[in-house]
Amino acid sequence: MAPMARMSSCANRRCETAALATTSLTNNQHQWRWQLIRLEIA
What we know:
Layout: H1 2-25, H2 27-41
């Protein structure tokens, strides 16, 4: 149980780091896309 939990938490951290890196890289793209979506909704 312990090793599996440790591995999963490590993988989760790696996924979070990758997600953060991807978000920071494509943040500007997503921002204007969300603005367009908000304008369409509003």
